[in-house]
Amino acid sequence: MLTGELPEKQQTSILNSMTMQPRTRKPSTVDKEKLGLFNAHAFTFLILWYFFSACTLFLNKYILATLRSDPTLLGAMQMVMTTIFGFIQMYLPLGMYTPVNREGKPPNFWRNMILVGTTRFSTVVLGLVALKFVAVSFTETVKSSAPLFTVFISKILIGEFTGIYTFFSLIPIMLGLGLCSAYELSFNIQGFVAAMATNLTECLQNVYSKLLISGEKYKYTPAELQFYTSIASIVVQIPACFIMMDIEKVHRTLDMTLLSSLLLNGVFFHFQSISAYVLMDYISPVTHSVANTVKRAFLIWLSVILFGNPVTFLSGLGTVIVTIGVLLYTKAKEHDQQLLEIRERYRNEVVDKELVVRQL
């Protein structure tokens, strides 16, 4: 009997079964991202990322302010140490990630590594240039726009959907971080351009790294990204060191205390970077950018507690606004995700009905 000759009741039964049956699909990174920071592993690596970021930041301050080391030497040592430890962790994951078994390297491997490595190096150099012209707080204020940059870059590079509620929830987060450091604002056009460029390269690096680390067919491990991009960054950094480094100052200040501090700082920097890469596999680039913004506010207040920096009303207000913004972001992302699932379910039902109608 042909399909068009089926009794009306049977046709209705077929239609109902096709529209009501859940569509099965393989678990993907999107499924993992739905839990976000509510995933125990993701939250653990978030804490590790915050901890090692704090260690790196305060040791940076000690090396540059107290030991008066050259900032270019500090950046170069960080890349050297993270290259060494990245190589070790490719063979000893230390429980931070699951190794990927594959034959050979993924397509365009070196092109991808050079692209990410160049953005890593550019972020470091532009950050140093910004600090040369403006206060740390001004750089952090400019970087507070990172979630907005990430939304647009994620849409262009990986087609990530960001709902209208999520988009607007980013505004109080960015505003709050700006207020946290507003008491120390300074403006300089060179510093402003360098800070904005740092923001752009860092967002590009994070989104492109997410694209590589969450691939379905050719998935890069965090250690691979850490190791190969560090090598690419060092290749670009070598000529920059000869141009930017004060060789006489390095010879004059280098001793066992400085050397041991540089080595320890490099270890902290490695674990800060690789924990950030591991975290990327669990959350979206926009959530990662929001977490980075919260981390900056956390480090600002930690420095206030440890170093006794003056606190103003705007700083306290900014912290409250950041906290509220994060709560709003969590609820907005959950709401937008529900709207997206309803929209997709409705679209799938319409497609299934059209298929049945064509068959009848």
TrEMBL record:
TM region positions: 40-60, 72-92, 112-134, 146-168, 225-245, 257-278, 298-329
InterPro entries: EmrE-like (IPR037185), Sugar_P_trans_dom (IPR004853), TPT_transporter (IPR050186)
Superkingdom of the organism of origin: Eukaryota
Protein name: Sugar phosphate transporter domain-containing protein
Pfam families, per the entry: TPT
The entry's keywords: Membrane, Transmembrane, Transmembrane helix
Compartments where found: Membrane
Residue span, Sugar phosphate transporter domain: 44-329
Keyword Transmembrane helix attributed: yes
Native source organism of the sequence: Candidula unifasciata
Topology within the bilayer: Multi-pass membrane protein
One GO cellular component term: membrane
